[in-house]
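Researcher: Good morning. I'm working through a list of sequences from a screen, and I'd like to move beyond sequence-only analysis. For each chain I'm collecting a predicted structure so we can compare shapes side by side. This is the next one on the list. No need for commentary yet; just the structure.
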Amino acid sequence: MKLQHFNVLLVDDDIDDCLFFKEALEELPLFLHLTTLHDGEQLMHYLSEYSKNLPDVLFLDLNMPRKNGFECFTEIKENEKLKDIPVIMFSTAYPIDLKYEKDILNALFKIGAHYFIRKSENLEQLKQTIHHAITMVLEKEPFDGREKNL
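Model: Good morning. Structure tokens for this chain:
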């Protein structure tokens, strides 16, 4: 897989998780440029400001202050200029009610999420999951509307 330049946008309010993600990304055998933002309002401002240079993939945390990932994702998918950005949703949250979790995931995939990732505290597992997700985006694997947890 040969790349000239692949832009990854990470939106996560947890600084430690951002550093962990960056470390995992740096160890991948891909040429990537990472931009990190820390809340949903920053994301939406960034996407409107840099609409001519959109990310190749967006990793979007569900649980953030000011504007959560679900709200941002809905806005992105409703915007003609942004709707084709591959979005990979992720979270550490484990709801006690599994039906509630399933409902959230179904809503995300119905709107057009490409994948959902659970954050991992294991660097090797996180690297593999990120690599797998980016590879799927690079290969433009068609999204068929079914749930795809990585």
